[in-house]
Each structure stands twice: as structure tokens, then as C-alpha cells.
Amino acid sequence: GKAIVIQADVSQYQQAMGLIKQTVEHFDRLDIMVNNAGMEIHSPFVDVTEEQFDRVISVDLKGAFFCAQAAAHEMIKRKIPGRIINISSVHEDLPMPQNVPYCCAKGGMRMLMRTICLELAPYNITVNNIGPGAVDTPIDADVKADPEKMAALLREIPLHRMGQPEEVGKLALYLASDAASYVTGATYFIDGGLMRSTGGL
After folding, report:
1. DSSP character at residue 138
2. Residue 67 CB coordination number (10 Å)
3. Collapsing DSSP states into helix, strand and coil, what is residue 40?
4. pTM beyond 0.70, yes or no
5. Among 53-67, 70-84, 185-199, which is the least confidently predicted range?
6. Rounded to an integer, what distance in angstroms lies between the CA atom of residue 6 and that of residue 165?
7. Using N-to-C axis directions, what is the helix angle for 100-120 and 50-57, rounded to 10°?
8. Distance CA 174, CA 63 (A)
9. In principle, which of 2, 33, 79, 110 could form an S-S bond with 92, CB 3.0–4.6 Å?
């Protein structure tokens, strides 16, 4: 296969549009869009600043919105039965105290997916979310570095371990494949059972 690497800050509209534009210019088509940019800022709700709120919403929700929109434009123009896959979180549905902007963004991503799947279905473009729980990535480095937090997290997960990025990737691969051509408007949680047992971590 062939790949290109393009650096972009998806919270900036023009950079997000440039990401899609350069991809289409290089490959002359766009079949699959995976929105995977994400960040979080932990703070008590009463202390969250406007700058913190705007930053998280801009990366996690605004970026996904406009990248999906730009991808859909290209798919529709070329009559491509495309796939839009958003990497959401268990926190699109599960509260997490002291992580309110992130939860707001992921809740918004859930309704973004549920709404645009209806608008894009006539073009045979499917839209789905993947909702990871605790996955062994840098976003959870602070938890791994604190033995007490890590032990508390593992107590909440029935499978008693963090997920691996490759496991999430395989789910994305399924949703991008022909095997998932009849799947749209759904969130697939991949969380080791966390959603069924948590006390609100």
C-alpha cells in the first residue's frame, strides 16, 4: 500500500479542510474517514476555564464534525459508498467527574453520528462510532503512573485489564470493510465490560 503523512490541527477549520483536500489530491478519492484526534483536560467543573473548554470541544467535536463533512462532500461528489468512523469513548454515555468538557464533546459526537447517518444513508455512506474504554495509550499515562488510580480502574473493568490499540483498530477495520455495509448509526463499545459495572470512574 501507499501512505502519505500530513500534519494538521483539526481544531483549526482551514487545516482540517486541507487535510481532506491534500488526501484527495494525492489519491484522487476518499473511501474511509476515521476521526481519531482527541484530548482531555481534567478539572473540577467549577474550575474549567473558557480556554480549556474551547480547546477540548474544538479538537474532539468540532474537528470530527468538519472532517466528516469534508469527507462526505468528496464521497458524494464521486458517488463512493464511503465509511465515516468516529473514535468516540465510553464517555459519550458514561459520566466522568472532573472531565466535563471531554464528556460533552463525546456526547456531542454520539448525536453527530446518529444524525448524519440519516442524512448520508441515501448516498450509501455509513457512519458509526467506536467507544473505547480504558485503552493503553498516552491519554491514560497519568492513570498508569499512579498505582492507586490504576488499581481502582482495573477494579471497575470486568476483564481486569486495559485494552490495546490494536484491538480498537481491528474493530475499525471491520466497520470500514464490506462486511459492515449494513451497519450504520451505531456505537460499538470496546471496554472490557466497563460500561456494565462502573461506579462512574
Report:
1. G
2. 23
3. coil
4. yes
5. 185-199
6. 21
7. 30
8. 23
9. 110
Cell, residue 95:
459520566
Query: What pLDDT, in 10s, does the model give residues 91-124?
Result: 999 999 999 999 999 999 999 999 999 999 999 9
Amino acid letter for position 148: E
How confident is residue 140, by pLDDT bands cut at 50, 70 and 90?
A: confident
Cell representation of residue 186: 451505531
Count Cβ neighbours within 10 Å for each residue of 11-50 and write b for 16 or more, e otherwise. Answer: beeeebbebbeebbeeeeebebbbbbbbebbeeeeeebee
Neighbours of 88 (CB within 10 A): 28
Contact 134, 91 (CB under 8 A): no
Kindly report the average pLDDT of the chain as a whole number: 95
* Distance, CA of 138 to CA of 136 (rounded, Å): 7
Of 65, 66, 71, 70, the closest CA to residue 88 belongs to 65
pLDDT at 120: 98
Number of H helices, E strands in the chain: 8, 4
**Catalytic center residues:** 102
**Alpha carbon separation from 25 to 18, 21, 29, 180, 183 (Å, rounded):** 10, 6, 8, 27, 29
